[in-house]
Amino acid sequence: MSSKLQAPRGTFDVLPADAPARQTVEDASKRILEAAGYRRIETPAFESTELFARGVGEATDIVQKEMFSFEGFSLRPEGTAPVCRAYLDHGMHKLPQPVKLWYLGPYFRHERPQAGRYRQFWQVGAEAIGSDDPSVDAEIIVLLQALLDELGARELRLRIASLGTPASRAGYREVLQAYLREHAGELSAETRERIDLNPLRAFDAKDPGTQRVMDDAPRLADHLDDDDREHFAQVTDLLARAGVEWEHDDRLVRGLDYYTRTIFEFTSDALGAQSGVGGGGRYDGLMEQLGGPATPGCGFAAGVERMLLASEARPQPAASCDLFLAWESSERADAFALATEARRAGLAAQLDLAGRSIKGQMKQADRTGARYVAILYPDGTVLRDMDSGQEEKVERPGVVAGVLKGRHAL
Ligand code: AMP
Hints:
The chain is α+β, with helices and mostly antiparallel strands. It is built from 14 helices and 16 strands.
């Protein structure tokens, strides 16, 4: 016998029992985002590798280590660069700005699998492209907060910071690099190697020596220019007006290079090591990186599995069944025709598909939670009301009408 095949590590099956909870995420996302004017977009599951190299950044862990790539393409590790590519491809700059889009689908990262961290996971995201107004940043954050609240995510914390514009960040980068070189001996080898390419990641380091050095490191917040400072102040004022609680965290680092100005992350203390439920920020330089005209944008992405892990499990109502058709073997074709008729009439109808005895079929009807069972014998038909246990003899052409009438009466 051949050995049993297994799903790849870091992937999971969405079983029927898991589907309703995931559906609530989709329904809540659609309701909340579309009420704010966001419209759904879906881009392909794979794109040219170059899109992510340019969009997410050559120096990022995502591009260097975490992409599944083949023949010049990569499975998408994130959604913002693809949505910006689509914005450019379809000339969306001609639409009223900002163009507001949302999406929900699978994403792929070649990470070390652990609880809450998968190699294929789902994200819901929203992007508002074409305006650098602080109200866009605030709206994106408020909408993600609304979604997390709606799903019942527990013990949430919102951290925000401003990364400034590329110009102010470049100045700060040099100051930080000089500081890191001065303390090179106390840093982890990994952080030392990143001084040239990605010095900001040092704030993210787990090793205690590096963390001690970073406690006294120069902060980006002290190097923002006046415009960046004012933009950030307006975003936080708007959040305060919306009643959103947040913490300023000037050590916040995001694993993607495209951010400018506002960045934010929601974490849940109810989760373990992988506590990030969703985050995002502004990416005013991204469109140019992709070869388009300068176009500001801001968005969020939140992990579907993480949001569900952070939420109270809610009991899901079982799917209903209005009519179950049980049949003796000579009556199969009639049962099949009646099931089809019932479904066309809008009823939830099932019939026995396993050649069970009448007794076995009644048990099966019970398991499906059927409201009525029609039992087709060679010499007649009985309709049983499963709530009251009452049975009556009926004509077959009247079965569907009888169930519809009974359902109306409820
Ligand atoms: P990021 O694009 O890295 O900011 O990720 C946005 C959100 O996607 C995170 O806050 C997580 O909720 C989720 N996420 C990212 N990577 C993974 C992963 N490997 N497995 C599950 N969820 C993830």
